Amino acid sequence: MAVLKLYRNKLQHNYRHLEQVFKAHKIDYGIVTKLLCGEEKFLREVLDLGVKEVHDSRVSNLKAIKKIAPDVQTVYIKPAPKKSIPDIIKFADVSFETELDIIRLLSAEAVRQQKIHKIIIMIEMGDLREGVMGEELINFYAQVFELPGISVIGLGANFNCLHGVMPTQDKLIQLSLYTQIIEAKFNRKIPWISGGTSVTIPLLFTHQLPKGINHFRVGEALFFGLNLFTGETFEGMHHDVFELSAEIIELTEKPMVPNGIMAENPSGDSYEIDESLYGKKSHRAILDVGLLDINPKFLIMKDEQTVVGASSDMLVIELGKNADKYKVGDTLQFGLRYMGALSLLNSRYISKEVVTDAPG
């Protein structure tokens, strides 16, 4: 069985680095754990870091987090579905909301459960995923402030999640101004302006983050150390907290050109023959992982290897010049991009393992 490894020392290093950055800028933050898909052993590693606030997009994951660490503040980071409202009130201390009717239902349920449910109202800032339109904010807040059992603790925005719209100084200033307008209009203090995610971190280092932005939600930067503006790893951070290890189940020298009548494969892909490869051979390894587990485009090769293709449960790799050092039963290691790690964590066919120390 292929194994997804989490390296504890690299996770701890990245967390300490981020904690120092946010502390220096007097910013509150929570760790986004939706990548972990509720995997208990990995959740425990994150919670053992000393995290005070955890964000997730699945109620079942928040339930697991509350079971492990009841005192951690849990945040449900998408608008609440109606059927999930009782559990959201039970397991989420905070939720991101954009719909008045849903907030009214959350209010009624919070009263039933004798709780005060905190919300961050998300505003649309151009990426066109969730968010209240700016021109509707005043009326929206006027109605929300009247609801029992609801405490508005923040105004937030998402960037780069759907259409790739990036955060800029101007957009974040606009977010801060919206907050100031609401506070002045209703004589209410809104503690958090939650404009920060992993994609916003570079603005801290270039001194472009407006002073009003005081809350971040961070996942990708913790697990991958990735600067989403440049595609490079942040200085002083690890990009390889996660690693995939897959076993070679066949290793054979084969022709580089398929032989026979060509048609679409089960994935809907069609291949064109490269006539320059006729008569050439390569060493190909079949690994015990496939499309059910990960799209190969999210793998990062660690050697002179290339992906030939994949079926539902097998991955074919061309080993290149270093084929002689491998044999059947050996394992190959791969780095991962975010969506690749997410797929593997969501696969019940992949073993998950915590490794205490890793080289590098």
From TrEMBL:
**Carries keyword Isomerase?**
yes
GO MF terms held by the record: alanine racemase activity; pyridoxal phosphate binding
Q: Which cofactor does it need?
A: pyridoxal 5'-phosphate
* Tree of life domain: Bacteria
Q: Report keywords, A-Z.
A: Isomerase, Pyridoxal phosphate
GO CC annotations on file: cytosol
Q: Which residues form the Alanine racemase N-terminal domain?
A: 9-225
Q: Which SUPFAM superfamilies does the UniProt entry name for this protein? A: PLP-binding barrel
Gene3D superfamilies xref list: Alanine racemase
Q: What name appears for this protein in its UniProt entry?
A: Alanine/ornithine racemase family PLP-dependent enzyme
Keyword presence, tRNA-binding: no
| Organism, as annotated | Pontibacter arcticus
InterPro entries assigned to the protein according to its UniProt record, in alphabetical order: Ala_racemase (IPR000821), Ala_racemase_N (IPR001608), PLP-binding_barrel (IPR029066)
